[in-house]
Structure formats: structure tokens, C-alpha cells
Recover the amino acids of this structure.
């Protein structure tokens, strides 16, 4: 339902600018309400001009009024009839719905799924008899993990009934979304598909080429189904010489996936009982998603991926897709198409063989003609007509090359001998013996000069040392003391040079050449 299909042109909420969907409902036209007799009398009286307080009816009175088809509510003479505005009536209906209907689960089919830039999602939930507007706010939509809402999806919704007051439409404010029926299987299918694709099981790089002319084909299917009958009929019609090995399994029901995976593993290992096959065909007839579900199990996908032999998936009809189709090395739309892909037409093979034979004949004839021309050319050459002459020419060439080689070797030796003589003369001129003798003589001269210089310097230093020692000896106080002099000091060590430096009764110390004398000054 588009915005133009809804009453009011599908205008959104003026506050948020968001678009809210609602289902079409008939317009509620106001009914003609007759005025009560007692209130009519009041209108004609003078009391009608006075302000009379209005008494709002309770929720039960509103419901009774609605249920009676808009009949007026009788009041006493002190009350007026209650006239509600559209907003007040809508608000009261909203309170009744939200307060009277608890959060609940509703199931149906999704339609008109729309997601706004704000992150909110609006859609319609419908069944064969009715439809319900729904809104899924962004905060709840973020909790749906990777589930994607789409038209036609069967779901179960959990939420609260409310009224969108600007449009006067009731709607379901969805909190939880859960797939229903086929929706659950489809969700499992998409989840497994994404996970296996992330692991690289669907990559074309890992898929193997089909053998161009398989001799032995292994088929994993039900032996009683129509799929194997169609497969064998087309296969034997195109190439009756092909051998087919059927590994019978159940293709539907609990445990069928394990049987299919085990059969693929047996073909892949090539047991002694079954023998080795060139290609494995996984096939069954068409059906619903539930019927084909065994081919969507992870164990089957893993078995196909681990198979050492190329696998062809021919499950269902052309419009049916399974996990096995994505993992297999080749996907055939139908079992008959798989047979056509594997079995080449006999006439086509024969025509190709004849074409190859003709091509081989043409290539062989051309090759023989080339070799024949080459043989004739060689037969007419001088090698076959005068073979000894060619030998003599070869010997003559050999003699000439020997002379040239000998002359070159002698010239090379002469050049090397001249170079050797030149190097010997240069070595004699540059022999190190004279250089060493000259160096030794110079070293002796330098040694004698150094010894003489050191002796002279030593004598000069000794004389200077004697002079300094004599000067120091003359200035030594002890030498003065030896000549009979003395040094007088106070007890604190000060040298006395005058009698005025000491008082009467003081003790002084006199240093002689040998020993000291302490004296006491009396006068």
C-alpha cells in the first residue's frame, strides 16, 4: 500500500518527520444525534446562557455510547451533553486499547516493508482476512541480528497495540520478530550459506574440472525416485557405453543427510566393493524447501567439499537452489541436464573422431612430403656424389688450423719471455738490499747523535741541580741553627722577633739545632 492509498495522503508525524503506515479502514461518519427533551428545554431557558461545568464521561460511558451507535447519553438538568474533540476521542481509544490489550504474539505475512533513513521499519502484517499496520523502531531493529525483513515472509511478531493519534490508526509496535514455517528454514539456509561462503567453500578457485569423457559415474540418490529414471534414460540414450553405480540413500526425512554424506564419502574413497568412479552425481527430484532440506545440511556440504572426486549437484528443478549446489564443482538445473553434461552424444564423438583422423592424415602426408623433398635435396648434394672430396677438404682445413694454432702459441710464448726479462731487470734495480743498508747506516748515525745529545743534556741538568741544592742549603733554617743561632716562639707557635711581643711571666719556647728549651720570662 503506497502513501496515496491511505486516507489523508499518507502524511507523516510532524514532530519526527517519519512515515507511519496504516491499513485502509472505512471513514467513520458522524451520526445524527437527537437532542434530549430535557436538554432542549434547557437550551430555551435563560439558564442556558450561564456557564455550566461540563462533566467528562468515564471510559465505560464512552464505550456504551460507541456500542449504541452514537446514541446520546441522558443527563439531568444540571448537565450538558458531552461533545468530545477528535483528539480527545482518539486519546481515550488509545488508552482503552493500550490498557486493555497486553503485549501479544501475532503471526502473518509481511507486506510493504519499508525502512526509513531514521532506522525505523514500517510494514503491514496480513492474512487472508485482514491486515495490521506495524512499526519496528530502530532500537528494536538492531536486536534482530542478521535477519532481514522482506515482503512475503511468514513471521511471528511480539509487540504492543497502540494508536498513532495524528492519523487515528491503531498499529502494532513490534519488539521481537521470529520467522515462521518456511521462514525459519530460510533463515537457517541464509545463515549457513553466509558462514560457508566466508570459509571459502563456494570459491571458484577450489572447484575442479569435469572429466571430458567419464567412464564410470557414481550416483547418490533414491533408487525409486523419478530423478534417477530421467537421469539414466538421457545418459544411456546419449552414450550407452557409460557405466553407472548407484549408492541408494534416502533423500528426505530425518537422518537422510547423514546417509547422503556417507555415500559421497564412500565414492570419494573408492572402496573395493564400489570401486573408483570418475565423477559423483548428487540428484533428486523437485519439491518444497522442506523436501529439499537434507541437501542444505552442513554435513552434506562438508562431504562435497572434502570429496577427492568432482561432484555434480542436480537437486530439484531449475528454480531450486540448495547449499549443495553452491559447494559442488558443477551445478546442473535438473537430473536430465546433468546427464547431458556428462554424456557426450555418440554421433558427436564419432564426428569428432573422424575429423581428428582426417586431420592426422593431412598432417602425416604433409610431413612425408617435406621429408621426401629433403631427401632428394641431400641426394643431389656433393656429399653423396663425392664423399672423399669432402673428407680431403676437411683434412686440409684441419692442417691449416693446426698451423695457425702453433704459430699463435709460439708468438704468445715469445711475448711472455720478453715480459719476464723486463720484470727481472726492474726487480734488480729495485732490490731492497741497498735500501736496507742505507737505512741501517742512518739508524746508527741517529743513535750516536741521540746518545751524545742525551749525555750533554744530562750534564747540564746535573749542574743546574747542584746550584739549586746549594741555594736551598744556604736558605735552610736548620743550617742557621747549626751555626749557633736559635728560634724563639710563643706557645702557640708564633716566631718572636722583638722582646715586646711577650709579657712578664709568659712561657716561651726556644728551638736549637738539637732540641728545644722552654723558658719563663721574669723581667
Amino acid at each position: 500500500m503506497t502513501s496515496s492509498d491511505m486516507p489523508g495522503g499518507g502524511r507523516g508525524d510532524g514532530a519526527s518527520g517519519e512515515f507511519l503506515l496504516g491499513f485502509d479502514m472505512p471513514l467513520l461518519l458522524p451520526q445524527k444525534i437527537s437532542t434530549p427533551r430535557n436538554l432542549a428545554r434547557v437550551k430555551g431557558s435563560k439558564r442556558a446562557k450561564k456557564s455550566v461545568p461540563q462533566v467528562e464521561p468515564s471510559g465505560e460511558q464512552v464505550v456504551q455510547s460507541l456500542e449504541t451507535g452514537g446514541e446520546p447519553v441522558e443527563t439531568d438538568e444540571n448537565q450538558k451533553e458531552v461533545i468530545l474533540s477528535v483528539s480527545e476521542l482518539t486519546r481515550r481509544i488509545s488508552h482503552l486499547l493500550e490498557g486493555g490489550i497486553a503485549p501479544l504474539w501475532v503471526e502473518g505475512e509481511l507486506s510493504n516493508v519499508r525502512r526509513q533513513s531514521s532506522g525505523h521499519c514500517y510494514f503491514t502484517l496480513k492474512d487472508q482476512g485482514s491486515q495490521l499496520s506495524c512499526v519496528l523502531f530502530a532500537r528494536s531493529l538492531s536486536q534482530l541480528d542478521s535477519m532481514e525483513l522482506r515482503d512475503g515472509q511468514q513471521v511471528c511478531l511480539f509487540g504492543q497495540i497502540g494508536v498513532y493519534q495524528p492519523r487515528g490508526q491503531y498499529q502494532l509496535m513490534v519488539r521481537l520478530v521470529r520467522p515462521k514455517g518456511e521462514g525459519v528454514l530460510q533463515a537457517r539456509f541464509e545463515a549457513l550459506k553466509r558462514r560457508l561462503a566466508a570459509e571459502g567453500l563456494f570459491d571458484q578457485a577450489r572447484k575442479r574440472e569435469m572429466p571430458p569423457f567419464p567412464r564410470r559415474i557414481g550416483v547418490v540418490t533414491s533408487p525409486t525416485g523419478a530423478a534417477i529414471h530421467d537421469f539414466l534414460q538421457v545418459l544411456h540414450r546419449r552414450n550407452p557405453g557409460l557405466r553407472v553405480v548407484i549408492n541408494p540413500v534416502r533423500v528426505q526425512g530425518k537422518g537422510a543427510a547423514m546417509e547422503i554424506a556417507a555415500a559421497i564419502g564412500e565414492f570419494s574413497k573408492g572402496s573395493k566393493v564400489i570401486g573408483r568412479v570418475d565423477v559423483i552425481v548428487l540428484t533428486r527430484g523437485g519439491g518444497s524447501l522442506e523436501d529439499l532440506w537434507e541437501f542444505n545440511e552442513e554435513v552434506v556440504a562438508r562431504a562435497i567439499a572434502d570429496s577427492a572426486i568432482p561432484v555434480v549437484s542436480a537437486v530439484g528443478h531449475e528454480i531450486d537452489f540448495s547449499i549443495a549446489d553452491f559447494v559442488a564443482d558443477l551445478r546442473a538445473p535438473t537430473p536430465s541436464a546433468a546427464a547431458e553434461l556428462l554424456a557426450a552424444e555418440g554421433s558427436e564423438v564419432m564426428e569428432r573422431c573422424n575429423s581428428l583422423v582426417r586431420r592426422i592424415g593431412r598432417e602425416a602426408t604433409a610431413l612425408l612430403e617435406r621429408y621426401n623433398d629433403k631427401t632428394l635435396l641431400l641426394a643431389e648434394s656433393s656429399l653423396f656424389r663425392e664423399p672423399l672430396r669432402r673428407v680431403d677438404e676437411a683434412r686440409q682445413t684441419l692442417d691449416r688450423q693446426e698451423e695457425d694454432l702453433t704459430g699463435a702459441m709460439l708468438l704468445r710464448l715469445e711475448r711472455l719471455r720478453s715480459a719476464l726479462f723486463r720484470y727481472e731487470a726492474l726487480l734488480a734495480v729495485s732490490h731492497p738490499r741497498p735500501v736496507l743498508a742505507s737505512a741501517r747506516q742512518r739508524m746508527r748515525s741517529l743513535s750516536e747523535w741521540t746518545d751524545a745529545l742525551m749525555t750533554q743534556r744530562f750534564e747540564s741538568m746535573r749542574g743546574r741541580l747542584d746550584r739549586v741544592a746549594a741555594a736551598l742549603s744556604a736558605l735552610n733554617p736548620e743550617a742557621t741553627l747549626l751555626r749557633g743561632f736559635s728560634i724563639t716562639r710563643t706557645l702557640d707557635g708564633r716566631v718572636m722577633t722583638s722582646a715586646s711581643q711577650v709579657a712578664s711571666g709568659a712561657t716561651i719556647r726556644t728551638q736549637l739545632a738539637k732540641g728545644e728549651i722552654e723558658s719563663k720570662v721574669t723581667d
Q: What stands out?
A: Residues 356-391 form one domain. The longest strand covers residues 104-115.
